[in-house]
Specification:
The structure holds 2 protein chains of 2 kinds.
Chain A (H helix, E strand, L loop, with lengths): L1 H34 L6 H16 L4 H24 L7 H23 L4 E2 L9 E4 L2 E4 H23 L1 H11 L1 H6 L4 H26 L2 E2 L5 H13 L5 H20 L5 H16 L14
Helix pairs in contact in A: 1-5, 1-8, 1-9, 1-10, 2-3, 2-4, 2-8, 2-9, 3-8, 5-6, 5-8, 6-8, 9-10, 9-11, 10-11
Chain B lengths: L1 H27 L5 H25 L7 H16 L5 H4 L14 H23 L4 H19 L5 H4 L5 E2 L8 H19 L1 H11 L1 H6 L4 H27 L1 E2 L6 H14 L4 H18 L8 E2 L2 E2 L7 H16 L12 H9 L4 H15 L1
Helix pairs in contact in B: 2-8, 2-11, 2-12, 2-13, 3-5, 3-6, 3-11, 5-11, 8-9, 9-11, 12-13
The chains are: A mainly alpha, B mainly alpha.
Chain lengths: ~290, ~375
Amino acid sequence: MDFINQNLPYILAGISVGGQYALIAIGYTMVYGILRLINFAHGDLFMAAGLIMIYLTASLPLYIAIPLDLIIIAVLGFLIERVAYKPLRNAPRMSIMISAIGVSYLLQNVALYVTGGLAKTYPTIPWISNSVTIFGATTKVVTLVTPVLTLILVVALVLLINNTKIGMAMRAVSRDFETSQLMGIKINTVISVTFIIGSLLAAVGSMLYFTNYTAVTPISGSMPGLKCFVAAVFGGIGSIPGAVIGAFLIGICENIIKGLGWTTFSDAFTFALLIVILIAKPTGLFGEKSTDKV
Amino acid sequence: MIKNKKNTILGFCALAALFLVLFVLEKLLPTGSMLFVVLKKGAIYALVAASMNLLNGFTGLFSLGQAGFMLIGAYCYAIFTIPVQHRDAVYQYFDGGLIQFTVPVVVALIMAGLAAAIFAALIGLPVLRLKSDYLAIATLGFAEIIRAIFQWDALGPLTNASNVLRRYPLFSSTLFPFIVAGICIAIIVLLINSSYGRAFKAIRDDEVAAEAMGINLFKHKQMAFVISSFFAGVGGALLAMYQTTIQANAFKSAMTYEILLIVVIGGIGSISGSCIASFLFIACSEWWLRFLDAETYIGAFKVPLLRSGFRKVVFSIVIMAVVLFYSKGLMGDKEISFQGISGFIKDPFGLVSRRKKKTEGVHIDG
């Protein structure tokens, strides 16, 4: 009990960051499930969502800026897929991954150009930026909102995937790309919808994340991006509940490590976890076993 | 056979001419010239890109750990060469550090390579069992872990924790990185043309078939990984010499991405392509595109968009264009050869032969 009392602020922060990671990790896991692509640009899209929000709120009221930010990011995600990934659909997997790295490089450099390399401060969104005290630990409302919102969004997404036509198409495409094409599924639409959903969730995640960590720099998306990919791998890539559990675990562990005074290793821990899981159980917690055909 | 010998002699002559030109340039031009910056950094990146190409292009192992191995090499070099009398100043928070001796520069370079290679051998055991993108992300992860470990306070007496390492011996002449990188790249080329190199290519093209032909997959993958890391370590040491100070935080995954993009621009599977691309990449990013960063006025008219950072935007758009529309890169998987050059001079871009084909086609039609 002593341990929990002492580390309560860190655990709370961990749960909150975990929820934000979960929203990003879903984007990775869905795209990987369908295209078998590590979308390296996803973390930078998350950063772009933060930056665009900053520029939008400079001139627009919040109730317009938030939906507009979501729309812009969804369009950006759609465009990235159409321009950078679609032409390479039949190319070897390595070249599409290189293209993803190229997009990430481009987004970072555009952000560097627009911001002039200075860290921008994220606007305060009322109510969720307020402070509250729980069991003697002071934190922002966003810490409490995040896990709830994450769970609501995840449940909605799972319902969408299990019960709608487009969800069924997504499952079919992720199971077998070519057969689903033969069955009359328009895979380009399915892939676009996947990217749009992933981008929207990343944009929501960015609003929650940057309310806590208010400085947005061109590279502030790359580390969370990599961590969320690790979360997706940990949970079994392609599995949404797996990604969410992995993200919460990584968020909580990372903050407890920070609490113990090992801040240098909080990033390294994530990757150590990745390597352990890849060696011990490459399919992750809930991943399906894939067989290589010769 | 005779033709081969002729080519080797021609190659040596070309190299000698290159070194002579460099030597003369150094005597003629002021030392601050941008040309030397490009040549020095370009040579270092050429070595690192060639080492990455050995792994990604020739063995088909998509590894993203290059920055980590460069970091090990750079630190190993710096730790063993900082003169003893400067150690108190450099390791000011750690009582002058742990190591109180120095080794000669060349020995330190080799040690830098060996340190990276040993580490690669250790992580190769688990990591090389993974397939394509899992391998990429695991090596990327290891690079990040290395970066964290080198900044760890407890290792401060050795690595100076998160403070910079400096005052180690540097190179003064552009020839030095050229000679070191040249020797290393020559070894890589020799390796690729040996029976080991053919085994690497067989693994790249089809693992199952290669195994059926009696190639020990793990042994060869491990070998490619270790050798590539060795040269990445040497490249890291050279980079340390070029930069005059090093700090672990600079070796981010962005550095690996840059090297990967160089390899792609040059052509995956072409060592000469990697070399050309790295000089082009460095020249563009450090020199030729600089004007894009400066605010320019033509008369009273301010040229729009031009300001700090625009260079990198243009540059990354060009790279995206190469990746999307020109995925073979500059050289594809071909190497520069004298036949190739003379063929190119006689028939640039295949215009003549294309025209010939056209006229032939007309003949057939007629």
